[in-house]
Each structure stands twice: as C-alpha cells, then as structure tokens.
Amino acid sequence: MTSHTTAPDGPDLTAPESALPRLVHTNENAPVPLSGEKGAGSDESPMETDWPGEAEFKEGGYGWVVVFSVLLVNAHTWGLNSSYAVFLAYYLRSGSIEGSSPLGFAFVGGLSISISLLVSPLATWCIGRFGTAFTMRIGVVLEAISFIGASFSTHLWHLILSQGVCFGLGLGFCFTSTVGVVPQWFTKRRSFANSVATCGSGFGGLIYSLATNAMISNLGLAWAFRILAILAFVVNGACSLILRDRNKAVGAVHIAFHKDLFKHFEFWLFIGWGFFGLLSYVIVVFSITDYAQSVGFTASQGSLAAAIFNLSQGIGRPLIGLASDRLGRINVAGIGTLIAGLAAFFLWIFAGAHYPGLIVYALFGGFAGIIWPCVAPVGAEVVGLQLLPSALSIYWLVLVLPATFAEVIALSLRTSGITAYLDVQAFTGAMYIASFFSIWLLRSWKLQQLELLGLDGKQQTEGNQVSGVIEERPATTRSSGRLRAYMHGMTVIKRV
After folding, report:
1. Is the residue at 14 inside a domain?
2. CATH of the domain at 250
3. Distance between CA 302 and CA 88 in Å, rounded?
4. Positive or negative, the Cα torsion across 295, 301, 307, 309?
5. Dihedral sign, Cα of residue 21, residue 25, residue 27, residue 32
6. Considering the domain boundaries, does residue 459 fall inside one?
7. pLDDT in tens, 456-477
8. CB of 22 closer than 8 Å to CB of 484
9. 376-386 burial, b for 16+ CB within 10 Å, e for fewer?
10. Rounded CA gap, 391 and 64, in Å?
C-alpha cells in the first residue's frame, strides 16, 4: 500500500517563467509520484511523472556510458591537477623557476582550483545557452593550452598564468559541464553512479602522480607538460563527443546565481561542509609529496605516497557511493568527514613520520576527498534535482576562497625540521572536524523536516532509511508552473 505525504510549502524560490520547467501533474494539489511508481489506477496505467520524458526513461542504460565518459574527464582534469603535488615538490627543490618562492608556488596550485570554481557561474550560463558539449569543449582547449604554455615557463608569473589561471579555466568549464550530468540518469543508484564517475580523479591522480615524476626525471619538465597536454586534449575531446545530458528532460534550472538560496540556513550548512572540507583536502593533496621529503623520504617515495592517496580515492569513492545509497547520503558524508579528521590527527601526526604510517594514512584518501563523491547527491537532498545546477554554481563560487588560500596557509604554517608540518597537520584535522559539525547539523535539519512530515524514522523511501536518504522532487502547487524548492518541505514521500 503506497501513500504520499507532503509538508506545508514555504517561501517561493522563483525564477523567470521561461527559465523554469513545467512539471507534469494531474491537478494543482496532487503530489507528483516518484520515479518508478505507477500512477493511480491499474498496473497498466501510464506512469505520472515529475518531469517530461520520464515515462520513457529507464535508469542506467546510456547513463553508464555517461558515467564512463565523466570518469575519464575527471581523470584528465582533477587527476592531472593532483599531479601538481609532484610539480610542487620539484619546483621547491630544483630552483628552475626564476622569481619564485614557496608561497608563490602555493598560489599556482590554489589558483588552478579556485579559478575552476570561480568560473562556474559563467560555465553554467554557457550550458544553458550553448549546451553541455560545447561548454565542455571550451574547457578541453583551454586545458591543453595551459600545459603547452607551462612547458615554456621560466618565471613564476608564467606558471601563474598557465598552470594556474588557464588550467583553472579549462578545469572549471569541464567540471561544471559534467558534475550535474550523472545524477540525471539515475535515481536508486544515484550516489553509486556519481561515485564511480568521481573515482576517475583518484585513478587519474594515481597514474599521473607516478607518470609525471617519471617523465620529469627522464624527459624533463617541458616535455612532461607537452605529453600531458596531448593526452588531456585527446581523451577529454573524445568524451565531449559521447557525453549526453538530460537537462531538458529533468527541467534543470541553469541560473548562474540563484541568490534566493542564501535565504535558507540549511544551504549555508551545506556550504560550510564543503568550505571547511575543501580547506583540508587541498592541503593534503598538494602537501603530501613535500611532507614526505621534509621528513627524510625520497622524491620517489613521496610520489608513491601521493599515488596511493589517489588510489584510495579511486577505489573508495564507489564504495562510498554504495554505502550512501543504503545508509543515507548525508549520514555517509558526515561519517566520512569525521573519519578524515580523526585520521589527520591520529595517523598523519603520530605515524606519518614513519613511511609505513604515511602509507596507511594515504590509504584513507577516499575519506579525505569525501566532498567529491557526495556533493551532488547531498546537494540534491537539500535543494532538489532541478535546482541542483544553480545551487552548485553558487557552491563552487563560495569555495573559491578555501581553494585559493588552503595551500598558502599550509606553507605559511610549515616550519623546518622533522616536525615542519605539525601545525599544518593540526590545522587540517581541525578543519575536517568543523566540516563534520556543519554536515551533522544539516542532518539534524533533515530529521526535523521528516518529523514535520509525521515520519517515525523507521519508514523507508525508495528502499533507503528515511533518516538519511529521501528522494526529493520539487512539486508544483500552482498551475503557473512556478518552481518550489524541496528545502521547504514540498517533498513526495513513498512509504514502503
């Protein structure tokens, strides 16, 4: 016996009429059935849906092709960006770049991430105006140009413009184009599919952390950059040809800056989780190779530790996705963040000076980067699938600050000797704990919403525990087609 409950709706999150989808419904007050649930009537009756074209949509199918293409894109964007840890260690010790300083090199690495986030509103606008594939190809070209430019760099400002700004622009266009596509193809396996796609950055970081170190040693810095440029251009360009979105089918709202989202405290908690978590994650990614060498290990051992860190992300993210679909997306994101903080305090600080201990800490890399496999599914929990592109556009914009200054803070806290990174390690752990508190408060908000719906915590939705997973779909209550966000309770609940 299936029944539906909806909570009282809250303030309207509106957009221009032409920019918002018109959701399919039978009357003004009837709730919209969840994907996979039949409408009223016999088993043969047509399925009522919450977006156009859903009746013909089957979970998976071409969606797995999309997952594979996004996995490759992540490997050749974020994975390549992870190899900056190897470049940073080389820059700090080679003296090959004129006018350089540790803080200057830190800014290069930070810019590659912060620019990618800063450009997200522009990329979001381009997606709505020109389409996903065209927007992604802009990023493909910019990323290749950045590596070619970096191969001729002799001064710090050359690196800032090429490996920092230009690469960040390319990364931003590619990332923004693909980050919201995978969730459109899945419902029950949304977290797992998204995690499989994001694990590409881990496997890419693994491969290119080892390959970059080998190429620099055998071919030199310039040719290492040129080979990476060719690989990124070919692979990402091919992926742009096979990637397909469902923006029209789901009625995705691509508003570059949906300021009404800031009126809601739960959205600020969502941002806080990412803000503090990204501060820690950037520090670990960019510092682990240099940390290894600062405590007496070789450059090869440092790159191996970075490679294992990325391997753990590649293997761990699909497992995180599976756990999220079963145990709750907010639950798993919170627990993973807490584990990352405890690992920084008790493994990196106390065991990191010994190489086996450092390797064990590197194996917890899947939790260190918990934000990436969880951000889109958790975001859908907070704002709903249709507002997700607009929410993520703001999300990345806010995260520019931690992305820019995380490694700068780390190198400022670094001292000398075998305990050079002690303050850095403590800061990293503290930021993970702050991130954990943010998402745990978000979980409390979620539970409060469920209590408002009159649920008892033992009920399930789509086969998942209500306490952590609930399939939100914005519903309409006016024939005008104005979109109301889930965050105020316009939620369709399927009781099992």
Report:
1. no
2. 1.20.1250.20
3. 12
4. negative
5. negative
6. no
7. 444 444 434 333 333 333 333 3
8. no
9. bbbbbbbbbbb
10. 25
